[in-house]
Specification:
By secondary structure, the chain is an all-alpha fold. Helix content is 69%, strand content 0%. The chain starts with 13 loop residues before the first helix and ends in a 9-residue tail after the last helix.
């Protein structure tokens, strides 16, 4: 955990804030590689903040700049700004957690990063945060099931189709043995 300075005074220069903002913007621009980019982001924060807790003034400025650069508005802005705040709070240990998740899971997406970051921000250890982020069902959905995902997609497609397309979707479901409840039964 970063050292607690208990201050609201800025410790980051304008150029340091800009570097952190650029890292956040880059991380959000390529979320599919979230783990690697968050590691880079944490390195940027560490290089400039040197393990210190990021004061509210700096945190607020970074969050506002990232939000403005990404064009976030409304509910999206609230959710994403909260994520930025969590990463800032947990940056000192988050990079290590991401590396551990990547090693354990062979990849690390943005959702796993955020799960670990939330635990770290609450004071959990890196191993506990990693264990939580890597637990199947940590997203509340359990293991992904490609058949169910395909059936769900076909059902949504069916609901927005007419005529021959609907008939062909039903045939595809029957051929693949997929149940799109209420449609093929």
């Amino acid at each position: 955990m970063a050292k607690n300075t208990n201050t609201t005074e800025s410790i980051l220069s304008t150029s340091a804030r800009s570097a952190v903002v650029a890292s956040f913007v880059n991380a959000y621009a390529t979320v599919e590689n979230g783990g690697s980019l968050v590691t880079q982001l944490c390195e940027t924060l560490s290089r400039h903040a040197k393990g210190e807790t990021i004061p509210k003034a700096d945190s607020d400025a970074i969050i506002a700049s990232v939000s403005r650069e990404r064009g976030w508005k409304g509910k999206t802005a609230n959710s994403r700004e909260s994520e930025v705040r969590i990463v800032i709070k947990s940056y000192a240990n988050l990079g290590d957690a991401v590396v551990a998740i990547q090693k354990r899971m062979k990849s690390c997406n943005w959702h796993r990063v955020m799960k670990a970051a939330r635990k770290l921000a609450k004071g959990e250890s890196v191993p506990k945060a990693v264990a939580f982020a890597c637990t199947e069902g940590a997203t509340g959905k359990g293991k992904a099931n490609p058949s169910k995902a395909a059936a769900g997609a076909l059902k949504r497609w069916f609901e927005h189709s007419r005529g021959d397309k609907r008939a062909n979707i039903i045939k595809a479901c029957q051929l693949l043995g997929l149940d799109i409840s209420g449609v093929t039964k």
